[in-house]
Design a protein that fits this description.
Distance between the termini: 32 Å
Order of helices and strands: HHHEHEHEEHEHHEE
Strand order of the largest sheet: 3-2-1-4-5-7-6
Helix content: 40-55%
CATH superfamily: Vaccinia Virus protein VP39
Shape: globular
Largest sheet: 7 strands, mixed
Radius of gyration: 16 Å
CATH class: Alpha Beta
Strand content: 15-25%
Number of domains: 1
CATH topology: Rossmann fold
């Protein structure tokens, strides 16, 4: 591993470890409506025999919902604190078909074509090299599998509250607290995803800044 990758991993772990304890509260207090719609749309895509990978699982919010439908869910995150929090929640949810792992999506330990569905929710815009992450998602996804990637597009028109939030994130990025922030337009996200070898099957707007790529499949 080169020095740039080591620095990336350290920076990402440091930031996400710091926010892990308050992550659930932040999500439900700031974006409850849109997150519920994201969850409902994701679960509507799943089948009982699916093997699922939840990338950047955080505290497992999506993984636990998926586990209520699918055969098996693997939730991975680069933050040890996020994974620890997700594992503590397993008793509350009584979920025995989830496995949480500390993994870097740029180079996971999973075998080729292992998953029916790969979910990467609200994460691409905060990855240093989302294209490389998508190539790894493609490697572990079955040839007829689906990739689901709700992604914030901060370069689109936003209301006042969203602009204030974005400016705060840009400040955190500028002073080095936030490891990465891409100000995507919708076409940027679609270009990155198709450039990694996927075909967009369906897309929809959850809110003015959140583009939901509902279902994607590998080419060929």
């Amino acid at each position: 591993m080169d020095e740039n990758q080591e620095n990336r991993i350290k920076g990402e772990k440091r930031f996400w470890d710091k926010v892990a304890s308050g992550y659930d509260h932040f999500i439900w207090s700031t974006m409850s409506k849109s997150y519920k719609e994201v969850l409902a749309t994701i679960t509507g895509e799943l089948k009982p025999d699916d093997i699922i990978l939840d990338v950047a699982t955080g505290t497992g919010l999506i993984a636990f919902e998926a586990a209520g439908i699918a055969e098996k869910v693997y939730g991975i995150d680069i933050s040890p604190k996020m994974i620890e929090t997700a594992k503590r929640k397993m008793k509350k949810h009584s979920a025995d078909n989830i496995e949480f792992r500390l993994e870097d999506i740029y180079a996971t330990s999973f075998t080729n074509s292992m998953f029916d569905v790969v979910i990467c929710s609200n994460a691409l815009h905060m990855m240093k090299e989302p294209e490389l992450a998508l190539f790894e998602m493609r490697r572990v996804l079955k040839h007829d599998g689906k990739l689901i990637t709700p992604t914030f597009c901060h370069a689109e028109n936003a209301n006042l509250k969203e602009k204030i939030g974005l400016n705060l994130m840009r400040l955190l990025r500028w002073i080095g607290i936030l490891p990465q922030l891409h100000r995507f337009k919708r076409e940027d996200v679609l270009e990155i995803i198709t450039g990694a070898g996927f075909t967009v099957v369906e897309q929809k707007e959850i809110d003015p800044l959140l583009l939901y790529i509902k279902s994607m499949q590998k080419k060929g």
